[in-house]
Amino acid sequence: MFALDSLNNVTTLHSADSVLQINELVIEIDPVAIRGRDATEQVLLNWYSKKYDPQGTKNKQTIIKDYITTTGGLSGMVAKISGRLNNTGLEDTTRFLLSNKQIYAYLIATALQEDKVKEDDEDALYNTVLRSVTNLPRRYFLARLVTEVVNARKLRLKEDNKQWQRLDDLTLTQGISIRFGEVEPAVMAILSTLYKEGDIPTYVESYIKRSIIPAQSFTSVVKKGMVDYLVQLGVQIKSEEEFNKGLYDDYFLLAYNESRKLKTVNDDPLDTARTKGAEISWNFTVDTFETTEAQGIIPENILAAGALDYIYYMGDSMQVFNIANALVLRWASGMLDVPDGITATNLYRFHKRRIERSTPEERAMLYKRVLNKGNGKMLSSMVANKDFPMFWHSLMSEIAQYIKKTENSRSNEQVSRSPVYQATKNLQYNLTEFMTGMAHRQVHEDYAHLQDALEIIKSEEIITRFGGRRKNLWNVIETVAKEDLETSIPTATLRTLAVEGNKVFQWIANFKEGTVKEDQFKAFLSSGEAWIIAQASMDGDDFMPSNKESSNGKAEKNGKNDDFDDWDV
Predict the structure, then answer these.
(1) What are phi and psi of 4, to 5 degrees?
(2) Residues 425 and 365 both lie in one domain
(3) Nearest of 396, 371, 250 to residue 316 by alpha carbon
(4) CA nearest 301: which of 91, 504, 443, 496?
(5) Would you give the distance in Å from CA 204 to the centre of its chain?
(6) Furthest C-alpha separation in the chain
(7) Does residue 482 sit within a domain?
(8) What's the pLDDT at 285?
(9) Distance of alpha carbon 424 from alpha carbon 432, whole angstroms
(10) Mind listing the pLDDT tens digit for each residue in 152-175?
(11) Which domain holds residue 67?
(12) 342 and 484 in one domain?
């Protein structure tokens, strides 16, 4: 029997081809991508043959497929893996590479021969293939696309130039669309980024190494913001010697400070709503306090749900909103003396905006509708997301089980990630469905409200007055809660639930089974484990304040109709 390969040459079918069946993409592929895959196939065949047939006694074109058919029981296992991969939502490049039978066979063979996966371990083989295809084959394939476009454009890249040394990593990060007519524009966009940024990213990394600022403060978002700011500022490093002397450090520190501001929310919907033509934009990235101690999935919906969960724990469970209210009341009544300045302005601004902000009842309604958390009352037309707690519990359970199995397994055995991945997918679909409508704007505004409250609580004047010996915002929250709200708040536990939980939401939003990197998965497991431990320490307690009573448990007073008689403290 005969078939046409990707080069339109007639080739004899191999008996292994019947099980190496990964569905081709139904889109039109760019010719550059087709040639790049052919080149990748040949390179992998050469590497494999050189290692497992150094004398050259075997047919290079069939050596890998022969291994599959001559290894007892392997063909049946490969058929199962193929079935699972065909039912998996793979992104374009991953599916394009796997649909090449030689590349797919190479990944199967090396998983068994080099990664020591057992032939009868379906889950381990499936996961290893998915991880491996995003490493060596993908790297070489993308490099070939860049090389062909560069050669076609007759561009000359100096390999010793620092900016071009970043080309591989930037290509992997941004990716290259393989659809017809899109390869060259995608490559040119990457080259344009390198031209624009020059050596600035390299100098940012060097600055981080010698900076007194903790390295963990320089997240990927912060570093990208620093690069963008320095490029926009037009900073030109004349020589590495001058840089090493610290002559440009002021610029880099300024860039860091500006990036930290942009890292959270850069505009408040209440401000932009008053400006004609203004646009509201936020990527739902939240403050992790590091410096103070296409399947129908919509990642933005999931990130917004994660920001809402963060607000639930930080704003209402930790009572940050009520702490800020209590401080405003102290200031208004003369019990708190704050000199004129930024803190006084923030206190007054917080007070005057209370009528425009979401009420505790409105926030509670949103928590209930999207996350089914708390006891908020909903409108008759609303439906609570009753499945979310079940799906979240399932994910946390699978994380715990995976960690347990990994600790108990022998070093050469791989534990299946499939249950963890499936639990993640369930949450992707669930949150995509329920985080809709006006909820995005509500979350954006509530996070801006939360940041206003935190800005007051962590101000120098407030920390000096209420920060105790530790002099931090967490001590302020605990102190004011005891004195004004007559309650004890476990700030460390709630902070973990908010911050580590948000990291899990980010994992869910960005999850693509075929592109999971080892460090990403480990970081996700670490966050999940921290969340589980923190939740267990809560012992079922709910720190959400009642919407019908004040936070200290006393009935709301029927005071005079003044500026402060409707505050929930």
Answers:
(1) -100, 130
(2) yes
(3) 371
(4) 443
(5) 22
(6) 97
(7) yes
(8) 63
(9) 12
(10) 988 776 655 555 666 777 677 677
(11) 2-139
(12) yes
Residues 122, 252 within the same domain: no
466 and 395 both lie in a single domain: yes
Q: Are residues 253 and 340 in the same domain?
A: no
Q: What is the pLDDT of residues 307-322, one digit of tens each?
A: 999 999 999 999 999 9
Decide: residue 245, CB within 10 A, 0-12 exposed, 13-18 middle, 19+ buried. Answer: exposed
Q: CA nearest 308: which of 382, 358, 243?
A: 358
pLDDT in tens, 346-405: 999 999 988 889 999 999 999 999 999 998 888 888 889 999 999 999 999 999 999 998
Residue that wins the pLDDT comparison between 12 and 274: 12
What is the per-residue pLDDT for 410?
64
The encoded tokens of residue 57 equal 């006694």
**What are the tokens at 155?**
């561009």
Host H or E run for residue 402: helix 388-408
Show the tokens assigned to 458: 């962590």
Amino acid (1-letter code) at residue 46: N
Burial bucket for residue 355 (CB in 10 Å: 0-12, 13-18, 19+): exposed
- Residues 436 and 340 reside in one and the same domain: yes
Structure tokens at 293: 């101690």
**Amino acid making up residue 377:** K
Residue that terminates a domain, selected from 112, 139, 166 = 139
Place of tokens 């939240």: 286
Q: How far apart are CA 67 and CA 52, in angstroms?
A: 11
Domain end, chosen from 117, 139, 161, is at 139
Quote the DSSP letter at residue 157: -
Residues 116-120: contacts with CB under 8 Å, at least 24 apart: 116/412, 117/414, 118/413, 119/71, 119/73, 119/74, 119/77, 120/73, 120/77
- Asked if residue 84 lies in contact with residue 123, where contact means CB atoms within 8 angstroms, the answer is no
User: Which residues sit opposite 2 in a β-bridge?
Assistant: 12
In the chain, the amino acid numbered 97 is: L
**Burial of residue 390 (number of CB atoms within 10 Å: 0-12, 13-18, 19+):** exposed
One-letter-per-residue 3-state SS of 99-147: CCHHHHHHHHHHHHHCCCCCCCCHHHHHHHHHHHHCCHHHHHHHHHHHH
Strand-pair partners of 29: 179
Which is higher by pLDDT, 152 or 561? Answer: 152
